Amino acid sequence: MKTPRQIKAITSQLEVLDELKEHLECLIADVNTATSRGTSWIDDSDSHSFEEMNQYLTNETSRCLRRCRNPMTEHSDEAKITVLNTNNCSSRDDNSDDSYEILFNKLDSKHSKEIEDLKLKSLEQDKLIKSTLKQLKEKDSKVKYELQEASKFMSSLQSQLSELVVKNNEQINEVFSITETLRDLPQEVADQKERLDSFLRAEDAEDKFDEVMKQQRDTQRKMNRKYACLSKLVKDSETELTHLQTFISSDTMTDIKQRLTDQETYLKRMERKYKEIDEKNRNRYEDMDAQIQANNELASSLHGHFKSLQSKVSKEISDTKLLIDSLETRNSEITEQLSNYKSHNQELNEVKTKMISLESENLKLSKDVAALLKRSLRDAWPACRMQIDNSDKLSFKKGTILTCFNSCLLNIGNCYNRNTGIFKAPCKGLYLCSLMLESDNRMATQFIIYERKGGNEAVKGSTHTNSHQSIACIVTVLELNQADEVYIKSLNDIERIKFNRFSYFLCVLLQQM
Predict the structure, then answer these.
(1) Which in 87, 121, 261, 349 has the greatest CB count within 10 A?
(2) What is the CATH number of domain 382-513?
């Protein structure tokens, strides 16, 4: 017969397990959702960026780990009362119950504080991870902004450089053209000098012409004096004629006629000579006037041409000076632009150095985040609770490990292998191990909890069932090293035994050492 106390203990335990089952189902659903999203991101079916997906998975992992820790803390009192009630039902030893209760109280008081510390550490780690991710995002955005600015700066530099190259080519062409012009200038200057020399020679010729004119004037004055002499001679001749007329009376007519004839001949000859001289002088005067006019015209034309050449040369000299000044200004501008380009290139090298340092810091932060994630995963408390579903009757051979716990209610850290039925300790520490079996037939059975360390097997507890609907439960605390194994074996051969679906095997890390 079932006592009310037994029913109450089983009912409370079932309530705790149902709540834990609901919580774990929700947790498993969230884990599946996060896993599916991560898998879809890997398969390129999710359009989120790496930072968003990494932040999402980190937050989901932290939240799931906190939810894994919270149920153990929330239901620790109820689980402790349930385990103690079960122990009171299965064992009649009051001293053993008192010792277990004292042990659980100590463990609960000790580990509750540690769990609170772990919660605080987990919250601090979550805050650190969030702050680190925030810094990473800020640095990433900053690096992207600097890269964009650097690309804009490089494009502007390239455009400026191309403009400078074009301007430089134009200036080089201008310099070449100016050089050609300057090369032609000495020839033009030589031509101008030649023309000036010819003009100066023309001026010398004009001076010579003036001398000739002066000589001609002197000759003319001499001729005038001779003409005056001739006029005087004619007058003297007239006077002589008068004297002759007076003398006619005394001389003979023949002599007078002879003398008159000679005098007339002489006068005609003198008149012809005078006409010839006058004609020669007139022709010479006309030639001299024409030469003077031609010389004046040549002098005026040479003077005008000299003035135009002088203005042209002065203009070309001023233009050349202006061009040289502009070239010097342009050269100084090009030198300044080259210095600015060098400074910009130095700034670009500094930006590249900053980008390399930022990439190294980003890599270091990624490693720190990975280490924090690994540490947070390592700080997860390993625990497993395996249950037997309603099944047909089972048979076991002596010394075989039970693998009939096929319903996984909890397996944090994947420490329990359902195929082998072995729980392997992930780290050194104190572990709480519990086994509860309820058989539905009248059969005396005995199952033993074994611990294997380095190949050595040791018994750590046993259970007995010998009646219909008999319940047997054992709870023990084991000190396990890393990779130590805990499992259940049958002491004898058992044929066609049927276990109730509430039978379970449980292992939980209480304290890490």
Answers:
(1) 87
(2) 2.60.120.40
